[in-house]
């Protein structure tokens, strides 16, 4: 194909694809009536837009919560849903993992053995977890952008916007116990306010053992076919007035406005499905320049650094059961994005994403130059954007190394960073010392519980070497240059020496140092090798990287906002959905398998048989609990089997979801709960940047497997009594 012909073909494909497409999109609930409901009903949905979102009556949105943390409740890390009118809520096992872990000890290991509260008294309180119900939304664009002009300086614009948002939030919260948050949509072209009722007493009710809740572990993570029983249960408590209250023993189970009916009917290929939840971040409208920087520079380096870290951790975990326990959560944390980035790069290549973006940009250029008015608004923005990306790329890479190989390379570097405050205290700050010391001691206890010095030494040596080998002198922290000279490039020798001397080598040394800390000891701290390194990275980052990077990104953000506005103006017939921003969205699509690659066609669901197929006591991730084997053998599936007599476990569908959607309710055409969203299939994880209905799949846990595990496996069937299960 000639280049020109290729271009024409791509433009043609883009034009065809420009109407509302089912599957793709994460939609704003208050706008469903205007943009989506007809399409949804055509796809099989049996209810109305008001059944999903209606301010003046109970509706499905009232059974969904965004899970957050005290202090930053609007950054929902997962989603949950109410399944009883006594506050019972379900989310994923990996969303409840921290809570489950925090109640676990060596003697009572709830991660390993699972946990089931056999009465309300046994439910376990969790400090700091919040559950937010959306009360209402409003388009506040006009108020936020009041007085904002196009020729305004970016900083002035942001200041004015901030001021307006503050006033809007105050006004919305006035005389209520609600909390409001205003967020930008479409890169700052629109603003919506969300008003929440935020509950703060969320107690752990139950979790299956990790051999079920995390079955397949990091091996199966981001993969289809999947067999993970990724769920845990909590109960939301309220004050006696049914309003949010901090934890108190005599709080009572929340009476929610709405809870989901649970359907045992299950799913078939092509069935309508819908997901409600709090997707975190997507970037669907970036330019080809941004995509190139991400997929050709930033992410390959981040993958390379993490591959090294994971290899080192894995080797030590395989050699010692203790290290495995200590490092498994950290390993999972590092591996999760590492695996997604790799799938993303492959997926974008497969879609020819960069060429598609380039074709759209060529079309945009032509359109932007077609009239004098358009020219004034949009001409030249793409070439400016291109130049800024060229300028920011080395800074972005330096930033990635500072993060991935610096602050998060070896863990003590991050820990040492927390000692910065302490090191600045002077004699006259004596009264500040004790509270700071107490805080650091707490950090230290948590830190060293999961720490192995030999692993840490290897991590430090390896990440510093990579930092040194991949970053030019201009962006290399002074201390790394010093180390290279002094140790002739032998970073392992450095790591040995550094930890022989450093107070961060173990808990005893650090506590000893903290126990009698006085401002006069700041000098000792300032000479500690790990502290020196940490300081040097943060100095370079703060002086050479962050300001320059921030300045260019501000310009890029402004251009992206203009580009977004232009894309919408250029395609007035197209219904756009805003990128995910941790606000409530509705996703809809259909249950579907997919063709993963040449000659490989996947079905849309998995069953317990697949778990037994994977069973291998030798492999940690696939060690099936004996009781589950027994249940399989005796086919004791109760009411939960499908019409073929199989025990369903997971299913795949075309809903366009992302991180944060974990735990989201998956509903059928009648709005009944049929599953819990928890992941995506690896071949389609580029959906955060470009969605493809052929291959992008969200992965859900079948609700029947949840009920089966609670009832038959855990013997906690009494929990089902408070649920509304329809056959
Ligand atoms: N990939 C899923 C998500 O992004 C699940 C991650 C947790 N599980 C794991 N094995 N690391 O959150
Ligand atoms: N596993 C993700 C989450 O925790 C969901 C996804 O990225 O698809 O939210």
From TrEMBL:
InterPro entries the record matches: Pep_S46, Peptidase_S1_PA, Peptidase_S1_PA_chymotrypsin
UniProt similarity note: Belongs to the peptidase S46 family.
Alphabetically ordered keywords of this record: Aminopeptidase, Hydrolase, Protease, Serine protease, Signal
Pfam families per UniProt: Peptidase_S46
Protein name as catalogued: Dipeptidyl-peptidase
Domain of life: Bacteria
Function: Catalyzes the removal of dipeptides from the N-terminus of oligopeptides.
Lineage: Bacteria, Pseudomonadati, Bacteroidota, Bacteroidia, Marinilabiliales
EC code(s) of this entry: 3.4.14.-
